[in-house]
Write a structure and sequence with these properties.
By secondary structure, the chain is an alpha+beta fold. Among the domains are: about 1-225, no CATH class; about 245-350, Methylamine Dehydrogenase, Chain H. About 35% of the residues lie in helices and about 30% in strands. Strands 14, 15, 16, 17 and 18 form a 5-stranded antiparallel sheet that branches. The chain has a 4-stranded antiparallel sheet with strand order 1-25-24-23, with no helix packed on it.
């Protein structure tokens, strides 16, 4: 919210650019066309162009940051806070903008194109922010904050607010230039004669950036210190971990969801099956899914959903596993950014199981386990395109994938071993082995006791001898920038004995 308000102020500050004055004159005079509808249409197309340009710049920077910056939320927030604070000081002191882009919109467009089209393209250029004169350090800082946040939702909100800020002064003044009114000319003259207004808006930008720096510094401190590391003890009576934004949630066995964020102790959530995104937490309860802030638990959205057995959330999407008739399961995706209806992306399977989903941005991974094959599937939610990351026959079981920054951690189970691996989601390689345990199955020696051992052997496993299997089985996991949070379930001790341990990546 602070970033969006700062972006709105930064967009308003841009009205004092040569391009801003040019847009007022172009739309206000309608290039001599006296018809009012022509001017109104030009206003609408210009505003739409500004919004599109702003969204393209700042959403694109956030997506780029998500791809290039490692998943350490504390480091990202610290970088963003530093950029915001430096720009706040510069704007408050009214320093000369550097680097400066000394470029204006192409004048020839308004003579060669229909006015509505020319104004739409002018709006895109102004909304992009860096194709014409820059009037505040806040514009550069917001670009850095969007990139450092690596959050598409943050980038989109900043971009739309910036585009709106660029459009509002022009939409306010330009119509008042037509129809013989004098108010528009008076407002333009006042802007040109009062540079103090521009400097005042830069100080408003500085205040907004200062607030952004404070909030991001707090988030950086929280993300840097609170999560269990690979050297810390396990979380007892816990399962289904989910990590994101420097926080950790899990399901307490026989209880509610739990949240560990900030420097305080873990706290209970008002629901179960919790999931974390970069800046959101979600849980299920009372027939609905709730999305909230992991810091304040202030609710931002609720979605009706019944029969939820697993949940994943990102900045723009919610994916949940739903239990349907006859025990069959489906995966449902819901966009948080558009009004599209819920969409089924997997299931129900005639026979088999669908695993717990894991979201990273707009990509979701999950497993399908049927009588003939076990596989890890990845679906790109906006397009619906899917592909198989890993697949095996009935002798191999893939479980509990977790996706982050182009890498997927997963479990591979055979008759001999339980393996925790991490690999690229773009390549079909086995990746690195992080942890290996013997399988839980009991292996036969191949001959009866007191009889001679000839040539038959019931168990041929390089990592274990015949006899009882491992006393531990691997369960759901979560991937963070440096750590895998892994559920271990001791055999024969009941569900309450499940615990979450940490494994270094």
């Amino acid at each position: 919210m602070a970033g969006a308000l700062t972006a709105l102020a930064a967009g308003l500050t841009g009205a004092w650019s040569p391009c801003g004055f040019s847009m007022v004159d172009t739309i206000g005079t309608a290039l001599g066309d006296v018809r009012s509808p022509v001017r109104r249409i030009a206003c609408w197309t210009f505003a739409l162009g500004c919004l599109c340009g702003g969204a393209a710049t700042f959403l694109g920077l956030a997506e780029l940051g998500r791809l290039l910056i490692p998943g350490d939320a504390g480091t990202r927030e610290a970088v963003g806070a530093t950029i915001a604070l430096a720009a706040a000081v510069a704007d408050w002191r009214g320093l000369k903008i550097a680097p400066q882009i000394r470029r204006q919109v192409p004048e020839s467009w308004r003579w060669r194109m229909p006015l509505a089209l020319a104004c739409a393209l002018y709006g895109v250029l102004l909304g992009l922010g860096f194709t014409t004169f820059v009037l505040a350090f806040a514009t550069w800082a917001l670009a850095g904050v969007s990139f450092a946040s690596a959050s598409p939702l943050t980038g989109l909100s900043i971009g739309l607010a910036f585009g709106l800020g660029r459009a509002l002064p022009i939409l306010w003044i330009a119509p008042r230039l037509g129809d013989g009114e004098t108010e528009g000319a008076r407002l333009m003259d006042g802007m040109a004669r009062e540079p103090r207004l521009w400097l005042g808006l830069r100080r408003v930008d500085a205040l907004g950036l200062g607030l952004c720096a404070v909030l991001m510094s707090g988030a950086a401190a929280a993300g840097a210190a609170v999560l269990p590391s690979a050297s810390e003890p396990a979380l007892p009576s816990a399962t289904d971990p989910s990590a994101g934004g420097g926080a950790l949630v899990w399901q307490e066995v026989g209880g509610t969801g739990m949240l560990l964020a900030g420097s305080g102790p873990a706290r209970a959530l008002p629901g179960s099956d919790p999931a974390l995104g970069p800046s959101t937490v979600a849980w299920e309860g009372n027939g609905e899914i709730t999305i909230a802030s992991p810091v304040s638990l202030a609710v931002s959205a609720t979605l009706p959903a019944s029969g939820v057995t697993a949940l994943a959330v990102s900045e723009g999407w919610v994916v949940y596993r739903q239990l349907e008739a006859k025990g069959r399961e489906s995966l449902i995706a819901v966009s948080l950014l558009t009004a599209q209806p819920p969409r089924q992306i997997a299931g129900p399977l005639p026979a088999g199981d669908i695993g717990r989903p894991s979201l990273d941005g707009s990509a979701v991974v999950f497993t399908t386990d049927t009588t003939g094959e076990s596989a890890i599937e990845l679906v790109h939610l906006p397009s619906g395109h899917s592909r198989t990351l890993r697949a095996g026959n009935r002798g191999i079981l893939y479980e509990n994938p977790s996706l982050l920054d182009g890498e997927v951690a997963y479990e591979r189970v055979t008759r001999c071993a339980q393996e925790l691996r991490i690999a690229s989601a773009r390549e079909k390689t086995s990746g690195r082995l992080l942890l290996e345990l013997p399988s839980t199955v009991t292996r036969d020696t191949g001959y009866e006791e007191a009889y001679e051992h000839a040539y038959n052997m019931g168990s041929v496993c390089p990592n274990r001898a015949p006899g009882p299997g491992s006393k531990l089985s691997l369960g759901p996991l979560a991937l963070s920038g440096t750590t895998v949070y892994l559920t271990e379930v001791p055999r024969g001790e009941g569900p309450a004995a499940a615990r979450i341990v940490t494994v270094a990546r």
